[in-house]
Amino acid sequence: MAKTFWVTTNVTAEVKKALGDITKYDKDTQQRLDGVVRDMTGRVFKEAVSRVPKKSGKLASSIKQEFRPTAHGLQGYVKAMDHIAHIIEFGAAGAVVVPARKKALHPGAAGWFAAHAIVPRRTAHPFMRPAMDAVRPDLEKAVKEAVDHDK
Known about the structure:
Elements: H1 13-20, H2 27-51, H3 58-61, E1 63-70, E2 73-80, H4 85-90, E3 95-97, E4 117-119, H5 128-147
Antiparallel strand pairs: 1-2, 3-4
């Protein structure tokens, strides 16, 4: 089961307003904004795949892009489907695990049980936020051009 997490970035209020409800524009502007959403989502996807740590390649291959038509316009998503993606993105604090039952930490040796397990701290290796931050200036520029195209 994958854990859902969101990575957000700060876009200008004008871009949020423009992409928040695309239906308020004429058909040509709506098509241009849909194209911008598709193009920029694809660029964020490529950036995320290129930035993800590739020890085995499993996490990179789990990154997917998706488009959903809504009542307010097209929405684009880039998501990592691997169940540990949030740990890689944000890191995790260390922990000491003490089992409730003695045999919970059986390492495999005959007659030997661990009293506790020390789980080390995992540092963050962000890949989604830097991907969005790299594309954000072009996104803002493209949205402004799409909206101001006929003015």
